[in-house]
Design a protein that fits this description.
The complex is a heterodimer of chains A (584) and B (199). Chain A has 584 residues and is α/β, with parallel strands linked by helices. In chain B, helix 4 packs across helix 5. The longest helix of chain B is centred in the C-terminal third of the chain and has 19 residues, at 179-197. The chains are: A alpha/beta (584), B alpha/beta (199).
Amino acid sequence: MRELMLGNEAVARGAYEGGVAFGSGYPGTPSTEILEYLAPYENVVVQWAPNEKVGLEVAMGASLAGVRALVTMKHVGLNVAADPFFSISYMGVNGGLVIVSADDPAMHSSQNEQDNRWLAKAAKVVMVEPSDAEEARWMTREAFALSERFDTPVLFRMTTRVCHQTSVVNLEEPLEAPSRGYKKNIPKYVLLPGHGRLRRHEVEKRLAAAAAFGNDDDRWNPVFEGSADVGIITSGVSFSYVRETVPEASVLKLGLTNPLPLERIKRFAETVKKVIVVEELDPFLEEQVRAAGIDATGQSLRPYFGELNLPLLEEALLGEARNKVTVSLADVEIPRRPPTLCPGCGHRPVFKVLRDMRIHVMGDIGCYTLGALKPLASMESCLCMGGSVGMAEGLARFGGPDLEGRVVGVIGDSTFFHSGITGLIDMVVHGSKATVLILDNGTTAMTGAQPHPGSGVDIRGGEVPRLEPADVCRGVGVKRVVVVDPYDMGDLEQVLAEELAAAEVSVIIVRAPCVLNERVTFAEPVELDLELCNKCGLCIRVGCMAIREKDGYPEILADLCNGCGVCVQVCGEGALTIPEKVGA
Amino acid sequence: MGKEGITNVLLSGVGGQGILTASRLLALAALHRGLDVKMSEVHGMSQRGGNVDTHVRIGKAVPSPMIPKGGADFLVSFEKLEALRYLDYLKPDGFAFVNRLEISPLTIALKQPNYVDDVDRILEEKAPHLVWVDGTEMARELGDVRTVNVILLGALATRLPFLEEADWEAAVKERFAKPKVRQAVLAGFRKGAEACLSR
C-alpha cells in the first residue's frame, strides 16, 4: 500500500514493522515526531525519558531482556547518551537496538551542526543512513536484524531533510520478532576492565564482519550504473541531489556508512574514470575513501558548513546552476520575521523584570532562549541542556564584586528534569549563593508540548505520577524554594531581590501555563486610551507581537492579544486597561 | 509540468496559517493521481511566529525534496511580505498566488525596517505573473477564517490541470475525518478556484 509519510513517521512505521517492543527518547528537533508516531501502535511500550542517556539505558535493558528497542534523539542528544552509547558497543545486544540520531545541518533548530557520523566510527558501531521516507521505513524495519546479526547497537543517522520530508512509502506487514529471552552473561555484560579487553576483540570482529556484509550487499549499498566518465559515492539526502543533478552518472549509494564497505568502493572506483564523493557537513566518506588509496575529489565541491543543495551541487558538477534566479530582491529590504515568544507567554514578564533589574542571566535550551532577543535581550548565555545551572554557579563564584548577588540561571521545567538537577546538587554542596529560576509551564513547549516528569501524563495522555519541581529542589538540599506567578511583576521583582540577597542557593519556581499548548485566554484584549498615552514606548519594549507602533503611538492588535496584562503593568499613565478577567 | 517533468510549488506564510495542511492536501491529491511527490517542511523554532515555507514537488519520479531558487513553477503565499521574501524562487514564467493580508513582524515594533512600503506595487512589478487572492475576506464570508489555506489551494488548482476534482476530493477525505469539516474545506477550495476562474 502506498502512503504519504513524514520521514519521522516512516521510522515509526518501520520500527513497528520490524517488531519493536519498546520506544524511548527525549524530544528534540528534528527527531521529535518519531516517538509521537510510534505511540499509537499497539503492543509497543513508548515513553519519553527524562533525558537521552536514561532513554538509551532503559532501551539497553529491554534489549538484554530479549526484545527489540528504538531510542530517538537529536544530534546533540547523542552527546548526552554518549556514555552508554560508547560502551554498549562493547557489550553488544540481545534484542535488536536501534538509536536514531537526527542531525541538523544548517542549524535550523540547534546550537551546533555536529556531524554524528563520526560518533558511529568512534564508537565502532554499525551505522545506517536513509535518504528518503521509504528508506527510513525499510531501513528501520531491517536495522533490528542487523543489530542482532552483528551484535551491535545500530546508529540510525538522519538529517533534517530526511526527517521532515514527506514522501511516498510502501507499507509491509510487520515481522514476527518474539523475545529472545534474557540470558545471564557476566563476561559480556559486566564491563570490568578484564571483560572489556576481551570484548574489544569482539568489536573488531564485528566491524570486519559488517564491512564484509556491506561489500557484497546490493540492497543496502546499491550501484546505479551509468556513464563510465564519473562515478559518485554518496549517502543520505545528498543521494537525492546527486540523482537530480547528474542522472546519467554512475552512483554508489551507501546505506551502510560505518564500517565503510571499502572493497565495494574500490571495485566501483575501478569502473569509472573519475570518482567524486558527495556528502553534507564533514568529509566523513571522502577522508576514508582517500585514505584507502582511492583517487577521489569531494571537499572542493562541498560547502564547508551548512546544507548541501541542488544549486551548489549543480555549480560544482555542471559548472552552473540549472535554474537562473531572474527575480532580484537586491533592491528591497525585507524585514526579518524571527521566532518570538507568543502573546501572553509567561516567560515575557520574567525577562522584562530581569532586564530592568540588570541581572546577568545564564540561560538554557527552550522557548525561553528567545529571551536573548531584542527588546528583552536579557539572557547572556545558552550552551546546552542544563548548562544554565552550572554556569550560573561558576559565574557567580568568580564574577567578583560587580556580579555579586546579580547572577541567575534560567532553566525550563523539562530541561531541569533533563539535566538541571545534578547542577543544582553541585550548587548546594559547594555553597553557591546564586539563584536558579525554573520556568515551569508543565510541558516541553519548544518541541510541541511533549510531557515530562513534571507533567503527570505520559506520551499517550495516560495519568502517571507527577514530580513537583519544588519537592525535587528541597529533596536535593535547597532550603530556599519560592513559587511565584510571573504575571504579578511587582511580586516577582520583590522575590528576586530577596533571593539574590540571600547568602545561600535559592530556587524560584516561576509557574505559568504554556499559552500556546493550553490555548489560554486571560481576558478580553487590552484597551488603549490614546488621550492618556504619552508615547513613552515602555509597552512596546515588552516585545509582544500584539502591540505595534503606529504613528508614534502603540496599537493593540486585538486578534493577537489574550489579555495577559503585562503591558498594562508597565504603563505609568493608565492608558492601557484590562477588561474583566474571564478566567485563566 | 516543467522540462524535467516535475512541478514545483512553494508555499509560504507565517506559522499557524495552515500552510502544512494545504501542502499535505496538495501532496495527497498528487498521490491519488498516481504521481510521485516529495515535500519538505520546517518544524521547531519556526512555530513561534516565524516565517514558514514548504516545498512540494510533483512528477513521475521526484528525487530531491527541495526546490532550488529560480525553480518554482508556483509560489502560494499566505501573506504579502512572505510572498516577497520567496519571490526569487520563481521561474522566469512562474506564477505567484498572493493572499491579500499583511501581518507585521515583531521587528516593526522595534523601530527597525518597517513593513515594506508599496509591497503591492513591488510584488506586481517583480512577479512574472501575479494573482491576488482575497483569501482572508473570502474565508470570512464563508464564516471560517481557517479556510484561507484551502481557498489559496483552490486558486492554485486552476493552474494544475493534471490534478482532477476527484483527486482533490480524495485528498480532503483522506486528511479530514469529519463530514462537516470536509464540507467546509471543499467549500473553501471551490470558492478559491471560482474566484480565479472568473477573472
